[in-house]
Amino acid sequence: MEIIVPADLSVSSQLERSVSMYAIEQTRVDKEDNINKPLADVLPGCRIEVQELKIKISLEKSAQENAAEYYQDSKKARKKKEGVVNAIKKTKKKIRETEERGVKEGEEPVRILREKKWYEKFGWSFTTSGKMILFGRNAKQNDALVSAHLEKGDLFFHADIRGGSATILKGGKIAEGGELEEAAAIAASFSKAWDKGFSQVDAYGVEAGQVSKHVQGGAIAAGGFALEGERKWFRNTPLKLKVGIDEEGRAAVGAPGAGWITTGVEVVPGKRGKGKTAKALGRLFQIDENEFVRVLPSGNFRILGEGRRGL
């Protein structure tokens, strides 16, 4: 609604034209002294009420000047409102995306403080039925693992590539076929094949008695082993792992489909660095990213379904 009050309107004419439509407040006008004075001299400013709408105007300015001032104020208010609305939208979007990843704004991933079990100094995993899989993280661990923990009844696995983890399936001689494939998947994934970005590699398994650190004429270098007899082959083993947390809340890695990892995702060789992958997994599972740095193989990664998960 537009209200026009000419600045040179006299008090008497203003009072005569006034009906219940509006009222002038704030200054009492002495009618005898000011009856013939311009309204602007008596009331430099006033507030007009129209159907509960209050409008403050300056009677020292023309109607056009008052209207122009309100127009400029309305433009500023509109811009501020648009800025606030956009900021709210961005904040809501950020909160929604963060909550979809399972982490509330401002929270740090949980850092696990617990006493580690003896086998956690090595690489470790389990088969679906609960048999332990141990593997070395470097040449020194490969030697220590085989010399101290490869026992009769176990099976030894390795990828058919130079550079890989010595992998032991405890009680492997009585394991079922699916468990052998799980151990082969671990041996294949924790090898140079992953670091090179391969999608698959051959792996093999032998009995504990077929593995030795000695050959005729001397000993084998650190991390290497001599194998005798026939090998059981696992051709074209896919390089794919399930990574997540187990029932104890630990960061864990296993063969694809490992049911003992209660919550997890699958990873394959990709283009994302190990550190960034561990950070994404830490956010997703709400634990310290360094826990995942320790369990992942060397190389780069792609998290399957990462777009859907907001990673």
Give a nutshell description of this structure.
With 311 residues, the chain is α+β, with helices and mostly antiparallel strands. 33% of the residues lie in helices and 24% in strands.
Tell me what the structure shows.
- The chain is α+β, with helices and mostly antiparallel strands.
- The chain is built from 10 helices and 16 strands.
- A 6-stranded antiparallel β-sheet has the order 3-4-6-5-7-12, sandwiched between helices. A 4-stranded antiparallel β-sheet has the order 14-13-15-16.
- Strand 9 and strand 10 form a beta hairpin.
- Helix 8 packs across helix 9.
- The protein starts with 10 loop residues before the first helix and ends with a helix.
Which sheet architecture does the biggest sheet show? 6 strands, antiparallel
End-to-end gap = 53 Å
Structural classification: alpha+beta
Helix content: 25-40%
Please indicate the percent range of residues in DSSP E strands (runs of 2 or more). Answer: 15-25%
Radius of gyration: 39 Å
Mean pLDDT: 80
The gross shape turns out to be: rod-shaped
Low-confidence stretches: 1-29, 102-106
Q: How many domains in all? A: 2
User: Spatial order of the strands in the main sheet?
Assistant: 3-4-6-5-7-12
Summed up, the helix count is 10
E-strand count: 16
- Secondary-structure element pattern, one letter each: HHHEEHEEHEEHHEEEEEEEEEHHEH
Name the features:
alpha+beta; 2 domains; 6-stranded antiparallel beta sheet; 4-stranded antiparallel beta sheet; 10 helices
Topology:
Blueprint: H1 11-17, H2 31-34, H3 39-42, E1 45-50, E2 53-58, H4 63-100, E3 123-126, E4 132-135, H5 139-149, E5 155-159, E6 167-169, H6 177-189, H7 192-195, E7 200-207, E8 211-212, E9 214-215, E10 218-219, E11 226-227, E12 232-238, E13 241-246, E14 251-254, E15 261-272, H8 274-285, H9 289-295, E16 301-303, H10 306-309
Antiparallel strand pairs: 1-2, 3-4, 4-6, 5-6, 5-7, 7-12, 8-11, 9-10, 13-14, 13-15, 15-16
